[in-house]
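## tool: complex_structure
## caller: assistant
## args:
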Amino acid sequence: MIGWVRNRLDAFRGRGAYAATVPPMDGALRPNTRLEEAAVLARVSSPDNLVLHQGRVLFSSGAVIMALEDGQTREWRRCAAEVTALASVGETLAMGLADGSLILASDADRLVTGLGRCITSLSAGEAGQVIVCVGSAVHCCDEWKHDLLTGGASGSVWQVTLADGVAKLLAQGLSWPAGSATSGGQTVVVEAWRHRLTPLGGVPLVSDLPGYPSRLSPAADGWWLTLFAPRNQLIELVLREGPYRKRMMREIDPDHWIAPTLSPAVDFNQPMQGGAIRTHGIIKPWAPTRSYGLLVRLDRKFHPIASYHSRADGRFHGITSALQMGERVLVTSRGGNAMLSLAEVQP
Amino acid sequence: MTIPLVQMTAITKEYRGVPAVKTVNFTVMPAEIHAVLGENGAGKSTLTKIIAGVTSPSSGTLTIDGQARSFRTPSEALAAGVAMVFQETSLVPSMTVAQNLYLGNEKFFNRLRGLTIAAQQFLQSLNFNVNPLALVANLGAAQKQMVEIARAVLQKARLIIFDEPTATLTPEEKRYFFALVQRLKHDGVAIVFISHAIEEALMIADRITILRDGELVVTDAAKAFDRDKIIQAMVGRTLSGALYQRHDNKVRPAGAKVLSVQNLSMGAMVRNTSFTVYAGQVTGVFGLIGSGRTEAAKIVSGVLKRNYFNGGEVRLMDRPVTYRLPREAVLDGIVYVTEDRKLEGFFEQMSIAQNLFMGHLAASGPPLVSYAQMAALAEVWRGKLNIKAINADARVIELSGGNQQKVVIAKSLVQKPRLVIFDEPTRGVDVGAIAEIHQLIQGLADDGLAVMVISSYLPEILNLSDRILVARQGRIVEEFTPAEASEQKIMYAAVH
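## result:
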């Protein structure tokens, strides 16, 4: 009873779960333009998941898996549906497709089904296993905005054994699991809608991130975490305003929703971005922009130690994947349709 | 030959047999600006209080205009043309600014409107932006100081003694103040100026007197001094370079996120401000008076309340927290070391031991008083913070400003905090104690505590901070690393 009263009071006052607040980008997440200034390796339509497979850099772009060789991209494999996730596990390349199938490709392809239609991320687990993140049991990958705006919490994490293709459910009821990493026998899962990194069965290692996190990949001495969109007070408010949100979803084109996006607005019908807060000639990152480019370097304990930004007025938004290659880091900007190369990655 | 306006000969003042001032000879000439410098406890305030009739000397003579005088009250001194502006405000909080200005000089039939208009005109003539109808209790420290100064000027004194007049003023207000001092000098008023800010003394004083341990070390023309020479005379050793320079360029790495303030709002003072404080680092917050930095810190520590509707969020260790009382924050490990120690920092009539024990009680369970524990606590913290006093039973009011500040800090640290917020930690503190307090703050961060230092003194922020946040108009507007920060950049961000 007291809990109910407090909940109603919080809703009335805009506090607790109803506080439309966003953590600041400061400290290790302090804005810069290092991502914006990164070298553009290739211009590709919607580049997504990067992997290093048998010495070759591969990345997905729609239904095609592209290879990056000598600074040039070429089609490496075409799939039956859009590729939503990739992982290289030993000799095997695991491919998650938008039709819900998981293909384990080595000498021959093996098909694993029954994981749902929304494979958002694949990563190498313990020896001979692949960890599969399924964002939602209701929506497919393209409908990620729908899942966010409906408060989706139907995601799950699976462990698939490469040898026999058997899938084992590790966790469910997650809010859009979008990335995972296994280290020291512990699998850490990224929950995008809860803005946190949590080990399976444990307490969050990092929480309250200022954006929607997605994939994790190994760095020289830690991890890379991509955040594909920013949080802002306007969207947080919309997320808490049920009737408004429902009506918006019912009546307005998804491209015009007040919701995060992967790319800067190009259509004047879309809600205004970069809300015109300009100081020192720079549009500040706390302006209500709906897209942003952010790559975060984490230490071994998954704490942020450095970050790379393409700010509100930048081009390379919607960062979905990073791959460390020696001194360089390759980054895909899905919103900016570009493959980037960061040269200096020391914080 | 010009007769000195004030001449003190072999003045000694003892408290309980302990000399605060020892056989000091001191003169003030008409229409001169005379700076009195010294560490806290050097006897500056005592010396000037004797001139202003606040206290009387144990021995020695005081002459005003060549006539021997012995003031029993400040009003007698005022009648002889000597006014003093105190470091700690002596205004009546429940009265308006106008009423305070004319307090003691009211006409038989008072007309409030006339009083207000006169006060308004007078404040404007001094370029002081203070509302004469505002209650003094609602004024900030800087504005109270302005009213104090205005009152002294209004009383048409021939000698005005300023005790730390600029400690609470912003750079802009300081400029006005210095112009005012020059104007007073031009009108024939002598100024005695007690300050810890050596540069200010060098800039505006005609003569400088330096005291150490109650004795006069030197009096000479300001031109004969430089910063190093003054510091050496003040402390008997050279500190100059060490005080406001980073000892190394090492920046502590950020530990866990301890405090996350998100879109915090409180009236017009705090407007949607957000910042984070990490363990193992000193997070410096610079801002001019009115930038909302103190208010934000007070909301975090439960002293003030945020807006009732959509007031934002304070997260401690990723847990949203709301405090109705400071004690709740203390129990959660947040302590706030106030900028106004006299009003909010300690119980002045209580002993050091009692003050520290009060801090301990706030953070512990039932209020069971153990005198043995109180004494032990006082002994430990007097040693740790080098609090100089006759003994642990000494009342805090009897201590110098620096030692009072150490008591305030110790009172907070006994509460075993995880986040310490220092608000102007070295305001009104002498150079020797500043170095000790800085060392203490660095030590806390080295021990893994999250430390936030709010300061309007740029060298202090630059010296202490691992991260520098700049507040302006109720929000944090910029962040600098120590490597890229400079006084110019920080000030630009704070103003524009």
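## assistant note: Chain B has a mean pLDDT of 85. The interface with chain A takes residues 253-254, 256-257, 260-263, 274-276, 278, 308-313, 315, 318, 320, 322, 467, 469, 476-479, 493, 496 of chain B (CB under 8 Å). Handing back to user.
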